């Protein structure tokens, strides 16, 4: 768009030279104003929508979440209180979808789409798959909709992870790990495709 304005300015300015300097100034100011408003600054979202997708054996696993940043805050035990349910992302609840049954912590997570929640704690986290995948934050969270709960031990990495990140890693043809990292914490758990 700016190129079109510059070409227009050149054409107008060359024709204005015959009409005098005053006309030239007015036309230039009007065109500069238009070009500034034609391209407003776009702000980058603070918690961009993100997804992680992987194939492990015949299983297509998809995790969908909004990825908040640390932004010089204390996250776990600060912004997010210990021992309270968190939707494991920003805005809408994080969800996981699998087209195959997965065995996690000795229990079967049936093929389907689930809300993914956690209860952070300094020693041990509770990981939750909930049948209500389409909810804002934890507003509609109901423990009676949980289909799978298990414990995971948090790891403390050496470097701070600025933005929340999920990874699905294939370890064999039929197994893998799912991890969630943010700030100074990583939790990871294995799964087996059934």
UniProtKB/TrEMBL annotation:
Q: Say which domain of life the source belongs to.
A: Bacteria
Pfam families in the record: DUF2911 (PF11138)
InterPro entries listed in its UniProt record: DUF2911
What is the name attached to this protein's record? Answer: DUF2911 family protein
């Amino acid at each position: 768009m700016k190129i079109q304005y510059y070409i227009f300015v050149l054409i107008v300015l060359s024709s204005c030279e015959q009409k005098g300097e005053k006309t030239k100034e007015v036309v230039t100011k009007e065109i500069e104003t238009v070009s500034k408003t034609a391209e407003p600054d776009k702000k980058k979202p603070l918690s961009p929508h993100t997804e992680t997708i992987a194939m492990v054996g015949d299983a297509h696993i998809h995790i969908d979440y909004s990825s908040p940043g640390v932004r010089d805050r204390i996250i776990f035990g600060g912004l997010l209180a210990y021992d309270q349910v968190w939707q494991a992302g920003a805005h809408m609840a994080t969800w996981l979808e699998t087209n195959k049954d997965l065995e996690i912590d000795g229990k079967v997570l049936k093929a389907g789409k689930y809300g993914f929640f956690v209860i952070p704690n300094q020693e041990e986290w509770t990981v939750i798959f909930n049948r209500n995948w389409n909810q804002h934050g934890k507003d509609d969270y109901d423990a009676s909709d949980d289909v799978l709960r298990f414990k995971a031990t948090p790891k403390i990495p050496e470097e701070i992870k600025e933005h929340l990140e999920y990874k699905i890693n294939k370890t064999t043809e039929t197994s893998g790990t799912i991890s969630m990292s943010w700030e100074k914490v990583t939790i990871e758990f294995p799964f087996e495709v059934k």
